[in-house]
Structure formats: C-alpha cells, structure tokens
Amino acid sequence: MAQFALQHPHRVSRLVLSSPLLSTARWLADSTFLLAALKTEGQAPAEVVAVFDRHHFCRLPTPPELLRRDQQRSNGHLYRTMWGETEFRANGLLADVDLFPQLASLQAFTLLLCGEHDTATPHTLDQARQCIGANAALVVLANAGHKSYIDAHQAYLDAVNGFLAEADGIQGRFDLSSFGL
C-alpha cells in the first residue's frame, strides 16, 4: 500500500499502514534482535518459531476464532514466494524492499499502527514516521504483537476510526489525543 501511495500520490489522501514491511533489511535486523532476546538456544527450530510467534505474532493465550480463520485463508505458497521459507530469512521477491529513502515524499495523511511487541517494531515505525514528517502519526498498541488487530481489537478499531474521522479536518500535525489514545 505504501508503494502505491508513493507511485500514485494524487490517488491517495489517507493511508493506514498496519504493521507494514517498509524495509526488509530493517525487518530482518529487528526480528534477529527480538529472537535473541527470547534466549531460545538449544531448542528445535519449530519450537523457536512457536516461542517467537507467541511473543511477537499473536500474544493472546488462546488464539481466537478470528486468528484461526485468518490462518485458514493464508496462502503458504504465496508467502514463500514473496518472503521465503521462514520469518528470519527473506529470499523471496520482497528480499530487497526498502521504501525508507522515498518516505519523505509521501503526501497522504498516514497512520502507522503496530503492536508493542510487533515484528514491525515501534522503533522502526517511529523512524518511518519521522521520515514521512508532519503528515504521519504512529500508534503503538499496548501488549499487542504483529496481529495487533486481534490482540488489541478495540484499540485498533478506535485508532483507525479516529484517524479517518480526524483526518478530514487536519491541518498539519496529528493530535492523537482526539483519538482517545
């Protein structure tokens, strides 16, 4: 979606980027950092992925029906073609993505959303917000992972709905206090 907004600025006035991939190199560096913090030495690869997913993908103790449906709709072949075999190594078509050099040219009012424990880390998305400038806001949803729309469902909806309602009257910098966040 960010790529479309960059290529067609006249066609996008509002942009919501939810846990976006803006740079594969940054994503992999962040994932490596997050993985190292879990101290999973000696565990089998499948268990490492399971531990990582519990901390950074969906943090709810019992996956809700929404996550199960989301997983059923996923296309493993497409994921592997676009990204690669694992979350920790990108060797698919997205391996060289880096939108950071272009972010300053984004013209649309932009809401960046991520979870506190997201693989699209708050630190990296704050760097993106700074690159975009005054037309961007970042909302970090507490105790949420990459599936922040599941982990913090109501806060996620409130942030998006607030942004869309507020965006029509914005002149310059966002005031997130009006979102109730």
Commentary on this structure:
By secondary structure, this protein is mainly alpha-helical. It has a single domain, classed as Alpha/Beta hydrolase fold, catalytic domain (Rossmann fold). Helix content is 43%, strand content 10%. It contains 8 helices and 3 strands; from the N terminus they run αβααααβαβαα. It has a 3-stranded parallel β-sheet with strand order 1-2-3, sandwiched between helices. The model has no long low-confidence stretch (mean pLDDT 88).
CATH architecture tag: 3-Layer(aba) Sandwich
- Spatial separation of the terminal alpha carbons: 24 Å
Low-confidence stretches: none
- Approximate strand percentage: 5-15%
Q: Round the Cα radius of gyration to an integer and report it.
A: 17 Å
- How do the helices and strands follow one another from N- to C-terminus? HEHHHHEHEHH
Overall mean pLDDT score?
A: 88
User: In the CATH hierarchy, what is the superfamily?
Assistant: Alpha/Beta hydrolase fold, catalytic domain
* Number of E strands: 3
CATH topology: Rossmann fold
Q: How would you sum up this structure in a few lines?
A:
The chain has 181 residues and is mainly alpha-helical.
Notable characteristics:
3-stranded parallel sheet, 181 residues, globular, Rossmann fold, mainly alpha
